[in-house]
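Quick log. Single chain, no ligands specified.
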Amino acid sequence: MLGPIARDVDGLVIAMRAVLCDEMFQMDPTVPPIPFNNEVFSGSRPLRVGYYETDGSTMATPSMSRAVRQTRDLLQKAGHQLVPFTPPSLESALFGLVMRGLLADRGATFLDNFKGDEVDPNLRTQVTTYSCPSWLKSLLSMLVRPLFPRLSMVLETTQGIR
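-> predicted structure:
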C-alpha cells in the first residue's frame, strides 16, 4: 500500500497533519507542498473520491477487493461521489523504466559481478536467464509470451548480452 496506515481515521489524520506541515516540505522535496486542509476533513460537503479495484497487472486478494467495494458502498451511502479509475500501467513502469534502466547494458554489468564466483541460489535463475545466448532468449520470449508475458518482456529486455 502507498501512504500511511492506521487503525482508524483519527490515526490517519494525525499522520497526515505531521507529514503535510511546512517543516516537512522544507526537509523532504519529494513531499508535495500541499498543506493539510482541515476544512475538507471537518467539513460536511460531499467529497469526490477516486478508487480502483485492480491495477491491471496484479490481482487483489478477495478480502482486499471486498474491502474496497464495502468502503465504496459506505462512502456512496454517506453522499460522497465515487469515481472509478485505472491507475497507470505497473508493467509499463516496471519494464519501461526500471528494467530498461537497470539493464541498460542488457545486464552485462550485473553478470560481471558473478564471473568466477558462486551464485546465490536466489539469483541463479536471473543469472542463468541473462547469460543465455541472444538467439535463445529471442526464441524463448516468443514461446512464453502467451502464458508468461512478464517473463517474455524480461527476455526481450536482456537480449544482446551474450
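The chain has a mean pLDDT of 85.
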